[in-house]
Amino acid sequence: MSSDISTFTVLPLVFSTECTSSHDVYIKEHSVRAVSEDKPPGQTLFMLNVPPTATEVGLRNAFSSVGNIRRIIFEKNTKEEGDGFKRAYIVFNKRDHLVRALQLKSLKPMSTDNEPIETGLNLWVKNYNNSICDRDVLRKKVEQFMADFDSQEKKDKTEENVDDEGWTVVTKGGRKPGLSRKESLANKLNEKVQKGAKKKELKNFYTFQIRESKKEQIALMRKSFEKDKEKVALMKQGRKFKPY
Predict the structure, then answer these.
(1) 53: closest CA among 129, 118, 125, 126?
(2) Contact criterion met (CB below 8 Å) for 212 and 193
(3) What residues are paired with 46 via a beta bridge?
(4) Chain segment 17-66, per-residue pLDDT in tens
(5) Pairwise CA distance, residues 34 & 45, whole Å
(6) Can you spell out the DSSP letters for 194-226?
(7) HSE-CB of 213 using CA atoms within 13 angstroms
(8) Rounded CA gap, 176 and 223, in Å?
(9) Domain ranges of the chain
(10) Which of 59-68, 76-85, 167-176 is most confident?
(11) CATH T-level assignment (fold) for domain 4-129
């Protein structure tokens, strides 16, 4: 039996006909200010507290009595809402189908004999087997990738003599054709940049030499000054009066 809580309607959801207990989900019409193409207004049902075992097939089975479903979008809950459970947006083909869904008192089982939902160990085994890559499939993918790569390289080489506007760049003929105008201009610019870089390096090198030379001159001047001080001291001592 369903009951209203605030703006949501609470519906019991069962996994299969063999289940004796149900899980409550909360539904209401999806209505927000920002309109989204994948969640059109008037056709989208918003569902909370969706169990982890719920799949797209399971929800389609649960709402199979109201009409055709165009798409189902799952979103993970925030940390405040709790991990494991999720939210779902169910987009119906018509407005009437959404209205019928909002009037439901209960939902059909998610897992049926025709479309069973795997859980527990069976689901883990299936996911593990799907994670193992088939060698033949992998080899075909690699071969296809290399073939596409080689084809693209050949295409790039043939398009090297075509500029951005689609004009063919004419080059010199002969056994050793010359460079195109664009290539020649690019080479000249590159040489100019390299020369500027070398001049800058030489300038920095000369600046370093000048700085080191000044340091050496200052050191020599200090050394010479100390020697002169010693000479002056000796001369002063020699001028002292010695009566004996």
Answers:
(1) 118
(2) no
(3) 28, 89
(4) 888 888 999 999 998 888 888 899 999 999 999 988 888 999 999 999 99
(5) 16
(6) HHHHHHHHHHHHHHHHHHHHHHHHHHHHHHHHH
(7) 6
(8) 67
(9) 4-129, 198-237
(10) 59-68
(11) Alpha-Beta Plaits (3.30.70)
